[in-house]
Amino acid sequence: MNLPFKSLVFVLAFLFTSTVFAGEGMWLPQLLKALNEGDMQTMGMKLTAEDIYSVNKGSLKDAIVHFNRGCTSEIISAKGLLLTNHHCGYSQIQSHSTLEKNYLKDGFWAKDRSGELANPGLTATLIARIDDVTKAVLKGVTDDMSPKERQAAIDINLEAVKSHTNVEAHQEVMIRPFYKGNQYFLFVTVTYTDVRLVGTPPESIGKFGSDTDNWVWPRHTGDFSIFRIYANKDNMPADYAEDNVPYTPKHFLPISLDGIEEGDFSMVFGFPGRTDQYLPSFAVEQIVDVLNPARIEVRDHALKIVGAAMRADEATRLQYASKFARIANYWKKWIGEKQGLETTDGVGRKKRFEAEYLAKAKEFEKNKRYKENMAPSTYLDQFEKLYKERESYALARDYHNEITGRNIEVMQVAGYHQRLIDMYKESGEPAYTSFKGRLNGFLQGFYKNYQPSVDQKVFADLIQMYVEKMPFDEMASVMKNQMGAIGAKDYNDFAAKLYEKSLLTSQDMLMVTYGEEPDKAVAKLADDPIIKLNTALNKAYGEQVTPKLSELQDQINELQRKYMKAIIELFPDRSFYPDANGTMRVSYGKINGYQPRDAVSYLPVTYLSGVVEKYVPDDYEFDVPAKLLELYEKKDYGDYADNGKMPVCFIGSNHTTGGNSGSPAIDAHGNLIGLNFDRVWEGTMSDINYDKSICRNIMVDARYILFIIDKFAGADHLIKEMKLVHPKK
Ligand code: ARG
Ligand code: GLU
User: Fold this and answer.
1) Which of ligand 1's atoms lies nearest the C-alpha of 326?
2) Does the C-beta of 622 come closer than 6 Å to ligand 1?
3) How far apart are CA 560 and CA 250, in angstroms?
């Protein structure tokens, strides 16, 4: 195991193209030339790697923008017009909406630039260049360092590399580990902070199908919204100012009017957030059998209670719609992930790979001597032991976080107030007052959408689960003690008493307390039964779970790094891409249907007729705007139809994950053909185990976007700004 890591990655380049799985992988744009260019061209791409990523000339990467550091977006005009998903721009759209001007419900289109709406805090980040800094970051780092020593040495190097990197005043530097810490890349970024809302369709288009259709194919959602980046007169980042001007990009994406066909090459360019492709089988088994079921169970309970309350009362439905969607999104994803791992035998596949790995490792180790635990053939046993030991801690973490950190709403508020109390005690009145002010802002939004009676039911239900399922007695005891102290007969009674007594369940009462002298207010808060309970639970968790969990996690991370290195070295004829980590990546595949189950075959494209098939008048998920129905009746599709039909969404074998929302789908020539926004249900396990037979990403067809902007919204001035092309003609 002595070849330096970097040279190995390089050797791979010439060997593996034949064994690449079409579709799998989230590749580094700066390594496409070495690793993927040939493969991509074989699949139909007409571009070079230099057209996609170049530091010398404008390339596709200059049109790809990290949207608010969570989603992806892309520039589609010479005047900084920015396309992303409706669900990525959702909170901005919501923040501009009132009952009179309800942009969520009715959509919004700025008539001209002066009508575009500012969004304080919203960021748009471009990547200027990416450098390999592995050598400098790992300087002086040796194999016999402990994980702590290793990290300390790396931290010093990271600072040194950052401070020695030459950047211009408006640029920032960020360094991230890849391949589990075997390689480090430095990103020079430029972040724009004046990003204005230009237009959005109504929710009945942008969120059509809502939670029922979420993660599902066939899909009919026009999940897009449009923003614009503004810059100062020198085209540089500047906070909002009236005389800022539209940003002039180095490159923007032309939009293809020729559409797609099954088998066409496609690529998705964006900022995928997180994947775990190199977990050992024990970890995957644990996710499938233990951790996902626990998280699903908690959310199942919460969603049932909240869902029932929403169905019973329209005001509740409005208050809880967005929260419900957020909880339901990953609940649904985890269910899909578990099923997908089971149907594709994800664990079995890992085990077969591990058997191969072990054989190769043993062969490699013949006649070599290793220090304890350093031989690659021992890694899997070490993993098994560590993951077994970690299981109850990870389970406790998931129950604790899901129950107290997420699904019982008032517990989050309790946590913030404990911070407020601590702040007063530690830093005095000014700190207290300033934090209280911030908290107050948050609380205005919180209480607007909060019903204590709903939360109380969730509390009673989940607290019981907490006591019964928590693998450590200490936290359950905390709960039981507090139940005893308050004289509660059962969980319902406990909930009723706490919600009755606590200040946090009534905005009015809390605000009265906020108005009192700090001393008095803090004393009242410190005596609040829900704050006391939450603090006691967090304390027990912090003592019982956190230290051991993070110790085990450090060991697992270190082992994972060595395992990754060994995999790459032992399988020189295979390609390995680094796990997603929120950095810029390219995925590529083909437009392709799939067979979700026996005798069922999905076509890759949906049409407007499918929207009409799903139409349920006045339904909160499947209503359709009258104007859209009218356009459909008249077949008034302009230049955007495909043989007389209006395409809506399509799927392909591009490997994507959360964070890829809003990523452009790009054709063989570098034109925009669609906008990524989701994955199919059967393939959500692609974060852990990509399977080319059923993993598909879902995109809105660019022609549907143009049609909505032009024909539905009448915003043809935006179309005029774009560059529409016919690459196939
Ligand atoms: N499933 C997509 C993603 O993970 C879309 C989520 C937004 N839509 C929704 N109905 N919750 O983010
Ligand atoms: N909807 C996801 C997002 O917001 C993308 C879908 C996925 O996870 O693949 O990033």
Assistant:
1) 11
2) no
3) 39
Residue count of the chain, please give it.
729
Q: State which H helix or E strand residue 71 sits in.
A: strand 71-75
* Torsional sign, CA 645, 646, 649, 650: positive
What would the two tokens of residue 471 be?
């693998």
Distance CA 55, CA 47 (A): 16
The beta-strand segments (E) located in 111-224 are: 124-132, 171-178, 183-192, 194-200
Residue 614, amino acid: K
Q: Tell me if the pTM is above 0.85.
A: yes
As a whole number of angstroms, the distance between CA 422 and CA 526 comes to 10
Tokens of 160: 């040194």
Q: Which residue's C-alpha comes closest to atom 6 of ligand 1? A: 329
Mean pLDDT, residues 661-673 taken together: 98
Known catalytic residue at 87? yes
pLDDT in tens, 616-654: 999 989 999 999 999 999 999 999 999 999 999 999 999
Please enumerate in sequence order all residues whose Cβ is within 8 A of that of 686, keeping only pairs 6 or more positions apart, or say none: 275, 340, 655, 656, 657, 679, 695
Token look-up 């005893």 returns: 484
Give pLDDT tens digits for 154-178. 999 999 999 999 999 999 999 999 9
pLDDT digits over 542-571, tens only?
999 999 999 999 999 999 999 999 999 999
Structure token digits, residue 506:
């009534």
**Residue 360 host element (H or E):** helix 346-365
Phi then psi dihedrals of residue 597, to 5 deg = -155, 175
* Ligand 1 atom at shortest distance from the alpha carbon of 210: 10
Which DSSP string corresponds to 411-464? HHHHHHHHHHHHHHHHH-HHHHHHHHHHHHHHHHHHHHT--HHHHHHHHHHHHH
Q: Evaluate whether 628 touches 205 at the Cβ level (below 8 Å).
A: yes
Label residue 22 by pLDDT band (50, 70, 90).
Answer: low
Average pLDDT, the chain: 94
Closest CA to 672 of 222, 86, 80, 268: 268
Q: CA-CA distance, 350 to 142, in Å (whole number)?
A: 30
**146 a catalytic residue:** no
Those residues with Cβ within 8 angstroms of residue 485's Cβ, 6 or more apart along the chain or in another chain: none
Distance (Å) from CA 282 to ligand 2 centroid: 26
Q: 374 with 491: CB under 8 angstroms?
A: no
Alpha helices of 14-115 — where are they, by DSSP H? 32-35, 37-42, 49-52, 90-95, 103-106
Is 494 in a helix, a strand, or coil?
A: helix
Which three-class secondary structure state does DSSP give residue 169?
coil
Alpha-carbon span 316 to 28, nearest angstrom:
45
Model confidence over 68-100: pLDDT tens digits? 999 999 999 999 999 999 999 998 998 898 878
The DSSP output letter for 121 is T
What angle do helix axes 429-448 and 507-514 make, rounded to 10 degrees?
Answer: 160
Q: Is 272 in the pocket of ligand 1 (CB under 6 A)?
A: no
Does residue 667 come out as left (phi exceeding 0), alpha (psi in the -120 to 50 range) or beta?
beta
Alpha-carbon distances, residue 173 vs 249, 378, 660 (angstroms): 20, 38, 22
Angle (deg, nearest 10), helices 529-544 and 491-501 = 120
- 374 contacts 143 by C-beta, under 8 angstroms: yes
Candidates 223, 461, 579, 687; catalytic one: 223
Distance CA 590, CA 154 (A): 40
Catalytic choice (66, 86, 87, 251): 87
Q: Residue 554: is it exposed, middle or buried by C-beta count within 10 angstroms (0-12/13-18/19+)?
A: middle
